[in-house]
Amino acid sequence: MPRIAFVNKMDRTGANFENALNDMRKKLGAYAYPIFLPIGKEDYFQGVIDVVNQKAIVYDLNDEVGLKYEVTEIPAELKDNAKAALAELIDAVSNKDDAIAELVIEEKPVTPEILKAAIRRLTCKIELVPVLCGSAFKKRGVQPLVDAVVDYLPSPLDVPPPTGEEPGNPENKIEVPSDDGRKFCSLAFKLWTDPYVGKLVFFRTYSGTLKKGDNIYNPRTRKRERVSRVMMIQADKRIDVDTVYAGDIAALVGLRNITTGDTLCDEDFEVLLEPPTFPEPVISMAVEAKTKGDREKCPKVFSVSRRKTRLSVVSPTRKPASLSSPAWASCTWKSSATACSGNSRSKPLPAHRRSLIAKRSQNRLMARVNSSASLVAAASTVMPVSRFSPTNGARAWRSRTRLSVARFQGIHRPGH
Q1: What is the CATH topology of the domain spanning 5-154?
Q2: CATH of region 163-265, choose from 3.30.450.20, 2.40.30.10, 3.90.930.60, 1.10.260.40
Q3: Contact 162, 174 (CB under 8 A)
């Protein structure tokens, strides 16, 4: 995949652009050359030098937003470094591009326009990695980064069209060209719950157009759904649109039964695009609900998390702090069996093994319940209750004690 590199946090203590560039070359084996150089570093980071155009972009240090900057001449003390970086960049590009090599051999000047076109060709061929720098937090160097994406990275028309598979026949490959006049095909790559509009399905349109009110088809579930609302998300802004075109990234509102990586297309153009890949997890975590209301919401939350991030294991390794509720007992028994067989990446345990583990968990829990019931029964004996003046409060206290013991012993008595 074509790429450009951005050395971030140049305003932090210990920032070193040269070391980061050398690590890309030595450790990653990248053919990386800078097209922007930093002006200062750490607390004195003021802007960047455009190597191709030989200009300086200096930011206003009093502007925390990073939107005020000025394009000026390169400071005198940095002109030699800028000229050396330009000569090194032209030499690196000439080693890979014949057009630049001819100009260098004939000792003709290499204009910024010609050099940019050559850098774009090599970047699209994955033969060069342009390197930029800046501070994303203070938005210094972000504007040149956006311009570099437009100048050097390929558009969908510059690369071969993506291919998908025919459902039920993976050997049959189907091309999905980037054309508004083709049939609609898109990929759902992210699910998000918005506090204002609810569930959002982010998708990228590969071909065709999608209008509000159209029907889309999910080849995985073989179900159709009607599009009621389409939005463009720009930072914290939500913009409703009527139509999206090939290459657009938008969000659908209110769709069901869609997971990350699903293909959304026309019903008469069934195709399965390659879903995004996720790295193997390096951290495991146990989750425990604190209240009964939270426990009732856990299945819904876990199901949403599974659709969003393909969560495969929910292992409640911690024991509940209170066993006074029979709901905790049933939840713990079921979770113990589920935790042993719910890992999709490992081989599931045999049925008799899961049954044995669940039975052991139930026996341990019943021992705790019986112990707690004994404590409650002892408390009811020790607690002084007036026999001579049985007030309503005393009767109510004895009734609650008997009911608590019955609940701990798992006895259900009608009327209590």
Answers
A1: Rossmann fold (3.40.50)
A2: 2.40.30.10
A3: no
Determine the Cα–Cα distance for residues 53 and 36; give it in Å rounded to an integer.
10
Q: What does the DSSP assignment read for 90-159?
A: HHHHHTT-HHHHHHHHTT----HHHHHHHHHHHHHTTS-EEEEE-BTTTTBSHHHHHHHHHHHSPPGGGS
pLDDT of residue 113: 94
Q: How many residues does the structure list for the chain?
A: 416
CA 156, chain centre distance (Å)? 23
Q: Residue 173 pairs with which residues in a beta bridge?
A: 165
378-400 tens-digit pLDDT:
444 444 443 434 444 444 444 44
Phi, psi angle pair for 37, to nearest 5°: -120, 150
Q: How far apart are the first and last CA of the chain?
A: 68
Tens digits of per-residue pLDDT, 132-188? 999 998 889 999 999 999 999 998 888 888 899 988 888 899 999 988 999 999 999
pLDDT score of 98: 92
354 pLDDT band, cuts 50/70/90, is low
Closest CA to 119 of 19, 47, 34, 48: 34
| Domain spans in the chain, listed from the N-terminal domain onward | 5-154, 163-265, 320-416
- Please tell me the predicted confidence (pLDDT) of residue 41: 87
Query: Over the range 237-250, which residues count as b (16 or more CB within 10 Å of their CB) and which as e?
Result: eeeeeeebebebeb
- The predicted model scores a pTM of 0.60
Q: Which two tokens stand for residue 381?
A: 């004996």
- What is the rounded CA–CA span in Å between residue 146 and residue 121? 18
Percent of the chain with pLDDT over 90: 44
Residue 386: the pLDDT is 39
Cα–Cα nearest to 308, from 228, 192, 172: 192
